[in-house]
Amino acid sequence: MTNSEQIIMAHGSGGEMMRELIAKYFVSAYGAAELKTGDDSAVVTLTAPDQPSQGQQLAFKLAFTTDSYVVTPLFFSGGDIGRLAVSGTVNDLATSGATPLYLSVAFILEEGLPLATLEAICASIAATAAEAKVSIVTGDTKVVPHGKGDGIYINTAGVGAFNNQQPLSGRFCQPGDKILVSGTLGDHGVAILAARETLSFQAEIASDVAPLNHLVKQVLHAAPQTRCFRDPTRGGLAATINELASQSQTSMTIDEAAVPVKVAVRGAAEMLGLDIFQIANEGKMVAVVPPDQAESALAAMQADPLGRDAAIIGEVREAPPPGLPAAWLRTALGATRVLDMLVGEQLPRIC
Amino acid sequence: MTNSEQIIMAHGSGGEMMRELIAKYFVSAYGAAELKTGDDSAVVTLTAPDQPSQGQQLAFKLAFTTDSYVVTPLFFSGGDIGRLAVSGTVNDLATSGATPLYLSVAFILEEGLPLATLEAICASIAATAAEAKVSIVTGDTKVVPHGKGDGIYINTAGVGAFNNQQPLSGRFCQPGDKILVSGTLGDHGVAILAARETLSFQAEIASDVAPLNHLVKQVLHAAPQTRCFRDPTRGGLAATINELASQSQTSMTIDEAAVPVKVAVRGAAEMLGLDIFQIANEGKMVAVVPPDQAESALAAMQADPLGRDAAIIGEVREAPPPGLPAAWLRTALGATRVLDMLVGEQLPRIC
């Protein structure tokens, strides 16, 4: 049996192979229209009961998303699997423009997990949920035998409401729009790798994992025509830009010199041979904004403690000619190269 | 380190140890009011946007639930992990009285899983979702290294709407109510054990795994004052009855002679030393109904192909005197014994 007939690690790395797996196995078998949009949250419509006095049904829009977390190690500089599990789902809801409200937390625990570890993770879940102002309303617990898990896996799902906000989507990006990122790239992925390999760098490198729903809300207030948000997690900025360009049938160009990266993270990534644009982030948000609202959006990001290092990093252009790539990088040296999606595996299991 | 300081298999068996884990670690750390109710689905309220013409906000009730599935083997007589993952979450939503609408499906795949296995499971997910009339609108894929999983773990979360139905809860059971079950007990747990141990019985024993939302709807139509539903999964009927009695501060008595059990399943359970009341079911529903609607509810169950063997199996009574158990079994021999919840582990990983 060849690799192509089995699951390999690269199927989970957020790149091209995962995209193929999703299209070929999941969407083709059971994909509803909402699953096919390619956004991080589904936007579904519920119909309110008949209002006899009103003579019409009220449609109510809801954001709904899920993510499992299998990170190793469970604790790392800047966070832990519990903070990751709450932040990731809150951020996926926030990308749609919804206000995250309710989360589920489901554990798969490995026999032998110290209860003190579980307790510490639960405390982190509680603190992060309080920070994001979401309630954990339902859950599940399964136990698997020693050797059939990795300490603890967590799934969170979440629902959010739109109130007066229209749902956002990567489909809405238009030529001329500006691309913003809320801060430095690469912090999470490098911190995880450092913790796993017990590498020590001169400077402390900490994960950026954080719930960004409040930051998103401020950006939407300052720049109401924002087209979409996307958190550049697995697959990094490269995957995000490729996905957004594909969804909106545009091309996008990122200006390398404008992308904020911490000096220590850049050095560590170079030393480890990692592409900073393919490393996962867990506390950063990409926004695509019409040009006349880009400065307002930037100011709103920078006013948030989690967005101090925000920058305008690129722009949306017309669709590429047939057969040409849609995501480009203008390098610091002035050349232009394709902003490739990860094909194989870079950093497995970092979220 | 003693067992009490680590996760052991019994923490996942749906009995007393799991209840303690949930109370001590999860509810105490981050339990919102909805998590504390003890029902299978949370009922949360969303507020619709202001309707200027109306001058009041509309509150919209939603059921929300989650479950992870870690069953081994992945395929068994009567079903597979995909059918289980859809049915389980559909049934948990249905117990609240909600109409299940949208599901998420999140996979944790083990490196080396044959893609043909994944494809077969996806086909089963699709077929079961179609049967239940729910849409799969969002998902996630993670891959863990060989030896850190068990082929495939699936988490499903789901949302449902109440339309004109008031949410149901185990809290609403009252003395005098009748307890119904929609069919034979023990089929799923015994089928799994048979598949795992490659036991062969003279008669085919198949899992009952199925989505029961249509059956629940018919019962609610026939018996609108139904207090609650509960699917007796992990921990079996014993856990369900103990939980419902505890939630409603009543006692409950089950009449052993009235409980439907297939002859082959009873024989296999006796041979294996299993208590039929503690074995998991995945296609059965317990309903608690006021006495004057019990016959209508029973007829509605029996009219559904998934409820042909339904029976009235017991009744709700006053709260027990302080210190006495709340769940009782009137045995076929005329004695009365406590209907104990599972304390340790009976059948691990059967859902």
Structure report:
The structure is a homodimer of 351-residue chains. With 351 residues, chain A is of the alpha+beta class. Helices cover 30% and strands 24% of the residues of chain A. Chain A is built from nine helices and 14 strands. The first copy, chain A, has a seven-stranded mixed beta sheet with strand order 9-11-8-12-10-13-14. Chain A has a five-stranded mixed beta sheet with strand order 1-2-7-5-6, with helices on one face. Chain A has a two-stranded antiparallel ribbon with strand order 3-4. In chain A, strand 13 and strand 14 form a beta hairpin. Chain A is globular, with a radius of gyration of 20 Å. Chain A starts with 15 loop residues before the first helix and ends in a 13-residue tail after the last strand. The relative contact order of chain A is 0.18. Chains A and B meet through helix 1, strand 1, strand 2, strand 5 and helix 4 of A and helix 1, strand 1, strand 2, strand 5 and helix 4 of B.
